[in-house]
Amino acid sequence: MNPSDQQLIQAAGLARQHARARYSNFRVGAAIQTTAGKIYSGCNVESSSYGLTICAERVALTKALSEGENEFSAIAIMARDGEFTPPCGACRQLLIDYAPGLKIILSDGINVKTYTIEELLPVAFDDAQLRKV
Ligand code: THU
Asked: Any idea which residues carry the catalytic annotation?
């Protein structure tokens, strides 16, 4: 495996340790890499008002965006060992909005599966539609 993918998966695994998942007990870690090679990680943060829960992917992405990052190459996602966990629909939308062309790396702790964000969210709504208004 490409060493930078390996490093990203490791960062996702470390972030998973910080998951605040007391309601679902489903712990998720994500790490997104900028095209310059910087890594921002995130974990899921759950709320007693369940709907306010934030996914690991969106935490990682918004941390990076709020630091002024604009170009991303890949995101790694890890949840349960032995299972591949794909990003939810809401995360796919934000990822395609801010990171078109993004490589999505799913790790089960041993093996990986990779996709592009366009494969995971085909025929997406994006700002191209808004520009027509
Ligand atoms: N979760 C994520 O962090 N990422 C996903 O893509 C799927 C779901 C979290 C949200 C919630 O804390 C828990 O997993 C169960 O849905």
From this structure: 57
